[in-house]
C-alpha cells in the first residue's frame, strides 16, 4: 500500500506550519497612518534627524546590532554598493565573495566596477572558508564580503585575522542575519561595514529596504554621502561633494521597521527554542544532520535554517528526491544559499568579461570551480524557512514525523524514481 504523499498517500501535514509572514497588527497600521497624516514622507522634511522615523530607526537598529552608526538605504543590494563605495573600492580592485550566496553579493561588486573573485565554502558551516579567502588574495585584492549564510555567523575570528594581515576591508553581508551573534557580538559590527536587507521575506522587513552599519565615523560620513546624492551632513542642501545616487529610505519603510524591530527578540527566542527541539528529534533519524553549532555562535537568528542530507545514509535516495517527498508531506524545504554557485549563472558564464576595461584578463568565470560549493549545492544542503519556526513544538513534531515517515519508506520512494 502507498504510504508516501508524493506517491498519492495521505500527507503528514495538512495545515500551514508556523505563522504567515510578515506578522503585523494595529501597531503597524497606527504608525503608517501617523506618517501618512503628517505629510512628511521623507527624512528631509525634518529639521532634526531624531524627529524622522528613518533617523530613529537608524539609531535603534545600529544599537541593536552593537554598532555606532547606521545609514538606512533603499534595499540590501544598495547597502552593499554603498558600503563598497564608502570603503573606496575602486575600478579594477578585487573583492572576494563566497561561491554560495545570493547573486547581489557579487553583482554589487561589479556595479562599482570592481572584480568579484569567488572563494569556496566551509563544509561545516556553509559559509565562506577563511582558508579559501586567504588563497584567493592577490596584490589587487581590496575587500572581502563574508556572507552569514542563512544567518549563521562566519568564523569572524579567522576572517578578521586574515584580512588584517593583508590590510583588507571587510563588508559583512548580513542580509540573513538580523540579531545573530559571534562570541556575544552582533554581526555587522565586527567588520568595517555591515550590510542588511529588509526585503519581504527577511526576519526584519518593510517590504524592501536596507541599512549600512559601521563603527567608524569617517566611514559613516562617506556612506551617508553616497546614500544622499553626494551631500555632506551640515553643509548647504544644494551643495554636493561626490558623484552618488539617491538611496534614501522612506518614512513609511522606517515606521514599519520600528514596529517590526519591537517584535524581533521574541521571534528570535521562539525560533531558537523550536530549533533546539528539532535538533534533538533529527538526531534520531539516520541520514539527516543538523549543523554542528560552533559554541562561538552565541545567537543564530536565521533567514533559513540549514541542515545536511546524506544520501548514502538515506538508503541512496537522492537529495532532490528527498526534498520533493518532504514537500509532498507538507514541509516546505529548499537547498539554501539561493541555489547553485553564483558563477554558474548566465551572467558570469556568458558575459565576455574580457571586454570590461577593469576586469582581469586571465579571470574566466567559466573555468571557476569550487568543489565544496558544488558538492553541497548538488547533494547535501537542505533548508527550512524561518516562518515555520514561529509556531510551537507540535509543528516541530510534525516535521520530525514527516522525515521519519520518508525514512521508513525509502523503498517506496526509490521504486518511484
* Widest sheet, order of strands: 1-9-8-5-4-2-3
What structural class do you assign from the helix and strand content? Answer: alpha/beta
**Unreliably modeled segments:** none
User: What characterizes the major β-sheet?
Assistant: 7 strands, mixed
Order of helices and strands: HHEHEHEHEHEEEEEHHEEHHHEHH
Shape: globular
Radius of gyration: 22 Å
Give the DSSP E fraction (strand runs of 2 or more residues).
5-15%
Portion in helices: 25-40%
Specify the number of helices.
Answer: 13
Average pLDDT confidence is 95
Short description:
By secondary structure, the protein is an alpha/beta fold. The chain is built from 13 helices and twelve strands. Helix 3 crosses helix 7 and helix 8 (251-282) crosses helix 12.
Could you explain the architecture of this structure?
This protein is of the alpha/beta class and 417 residues long. The chain is built from 13 helices and twelve strands. The strands form three sheets. A seven-stranded mixed sheet has the order 1-9-8-5-4-2-3, with helices on both faces. It has a three-stranded antiparallel sheet with strand order 10-11-12. Strands 6-7 form a two-stranded antiparallel ribbon. It is globular. The model has no long low-confidence stretch (mean pLDDT 95).
Amino acid at each position: 500500500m502507498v504510504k508516501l504523499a508524493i506517491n498519492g498517500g495521505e500527507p503528514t501535514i495538512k495545515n500551514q506550519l508556523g505563522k504567515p509572514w510578515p506578522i503585523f497588527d494595529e501597531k503597524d497600521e497606527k504608525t503608517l497612518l501617523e506618517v501618512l497624516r503628517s505629510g512628511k514622507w521623507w527624512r528631509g522634511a525634518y529639521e532634526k534627524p531624531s524627529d524622522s522615523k528613518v533617523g530613529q530607526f537608524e539609531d535603534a537598529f545600529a544599537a541593536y546590532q552593537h554598532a555606532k552608526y547606521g545609514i538606512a538605504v533603499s534595499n540590501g543590494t544598495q547597502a552593499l554598493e554603498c558600503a563598497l563605495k564608502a570603503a573606496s573600492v575602486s575600478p579594477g580592485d578585487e573583492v572576494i565573495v563566497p561561491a554560495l550566496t545570493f547573486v547581489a553579493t557579487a553583482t554589487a561588486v561589479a556595479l562599482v566596477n570592481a572584480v568579484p573573485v569567488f572563494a569556496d565554502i566551509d563544509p561545516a558551516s556553509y559559509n565562506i572558508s577563511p582558508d579559501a579567502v586567504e588563497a584567493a588574495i592577490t596584490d589587487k585584492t581590496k575587500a572581502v564580503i563574508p556572507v552569514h549564510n542563512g544567518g549563521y555567523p562566519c568564523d569572524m575570528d579567522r576572517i578578521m585575522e586574515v584580512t588584517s594581515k593583508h590590510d583588507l576591508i571587510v563588508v559583512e553581508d548580513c542580509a540573513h542575519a538580523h540579531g545573530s551573534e559571534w562570541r556575544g557580538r552582533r554581526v555587522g559590527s565586527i567588520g568595517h561595514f555591515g550590510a542588511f536587507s529588509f526585503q519581504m521575506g527577511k526576519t526584519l522587513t518593510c517590504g524592501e529596504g536596507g541599512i549600512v552599519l559601521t563603527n567608524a565615523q569617517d566611514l559613516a560620513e562617506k556612506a551617508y554621502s553616497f546614500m544622499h546624492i553626494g551631500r555632506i551632513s551640515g553643509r548647504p542642501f544644494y551643495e554636493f561633494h561626490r558623484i552618488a545616487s539617491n538611496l534614501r529610505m522612506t518614512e513609511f519603510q522606517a515606521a514599519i521597521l520600528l514596529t517590526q524591530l519591537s517584535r524581533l527578540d521574541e521571534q528570535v527566542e521562539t525560533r531558537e527554542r523550536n530549533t533546539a527541539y528539532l535538533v534533538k528529534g533529527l538526531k534520531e533519524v539516520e541520514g539527516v544532520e543538523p549543523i554542528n553549532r560552533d559554541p562561538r555562535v552565541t545567537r543564530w537568528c536565521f533567514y533559513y535554517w540549514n541542515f545536511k542530507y546524506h544520501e548514502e545514509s538515506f538508503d541512496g535516495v537522492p537529495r532532490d528526491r528527498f526534498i520533493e517527498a518532504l514537500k509532498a508531506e507538507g514541509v516546505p524545504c529548499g537547498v539554501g544559499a539561493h541555489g547553485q554557485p553564483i558563477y554558474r549563472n548566465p551572467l558570469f558564464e556568458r558575459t565576455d568579461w574580457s571586454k570590461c576595461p577593469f576586469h582581469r584578463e586571465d579571470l574566466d568565470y567559466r573555468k571557476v570551480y569550487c568543489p565544496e560549493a558544488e558538492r553541497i549545492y548538488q547533494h547535501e544542503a537542505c533548508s527550512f524557512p524561518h516562518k515555520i519556526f514561529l509556531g510551537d513544538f507540535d509543528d516541530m513534531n510534525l516535521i520530525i514525523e514527516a522525515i521519519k515517515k520518508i525514512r521508513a519508506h525509502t523503498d517506496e520512494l526509490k521504486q518511484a524514481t
